[in-house]
Write a structure and sequence with these properties.
3-stranded antiparallel beta sheet, Arc Repressor Mutant, subunit A
C-alpha cells in the first residue's frame, strides 16, 4: 500500500487522505510547472501551449476538421473553437467549408502559421528539456511510458496485467 491508501488503526479513510499525494493533484502540479516553463520560454507571449499543440496538429495533418483536431489534441470541442478563433484572428490559420460537405469546416495553417510553428519548435524542445530537468534517461523513458499508458487506458479501471 502507498502512503495515501494505508489506514492507520483507529482512523477513518478520510483522516488518512492526503490530497498532495493523489495522482490528479500531482499531474495538475506537473502540468502547471510545464505551462509556466512554456510561458517563460516561448518568445511569442500571446501563444499558449494549447494553441501551439493545435498548430502542430494542423501542420501534421494538413487541412482538417475541428473534430479531427479535438481527437488529435484531446482538447474539448468547446475549447477548440476558441483556440481556432484566436489563431484565425492572428492569421495563423484559415477556416473554410469542405467542398464535399458544406457543414464541415476545414482548418489549415497559413504561411504565417507554418512559419510560427517552425520558429517555435526549437523552443518547444527546450521546454521539454526544462520540464525533464533532473531526470536521468531511464526516468524520462519511464515517465513517458507511464503517461502514455495512462492516456491510452479506456478509463474503466478493469485492465488486467
Amino acid at each position: 500500500m502507498t502512503k495515501n491508501t494505508r489506514r492507520l488503526p483507529g482512523t477513518s479513510a478520510s483522516e488518512n487522505y492526503d490530497f498532495s499525494e493523489q495522482v490528479g493533484h500531482l499531474l495538475r502540479r506537473a502540468y502547471q510547472r510545464h505551462t509556466a516553463l512554456f510561458q517563460q520560454t516561448i518568445p511569442d507571449t500571446q501563444l499558449t501551449a494549447a494553441q501551439f499543440v493545435v498548430l502542430c496538429s494542423i501542420r501534421d495533418s494538413g487541412a482538417c476538421s475541428l473534430s479531427q483536431i479535438v481527437k488529435q489534441t484531446a482538447i474539448d470541442q468547446a475549447t477548440i473553437r476558441g483556440v481556432i478563433d484566436r489563431l484565425k484572428a492572428r492569421k495563423f490559420v484559415s477556416v473554410r467549408h469542405d467542398e464535399m460537405d458544406r457543414r464541415k469546416v476545414l482548418v489549415s495553417l497559413t504561411e504565417a502559421g507554418q512559419s510560427l510553428v517552425e520558429s517555435m519548435v526549437p523552443f518547444a524542445f527546450e521546454i521539454t528539456e526544462k520540464t525533464f530537468n533532473g531526470f536521468n534517461p531511464a526516468e524520462r523513458m519511464a515517465l513517458l511510458y507511464l503517461l502514455n499508458k495512462m492516456c491510452d487506458g479506456d478509463g474503466d479501471g478493469d485492465e488486467e496485467e
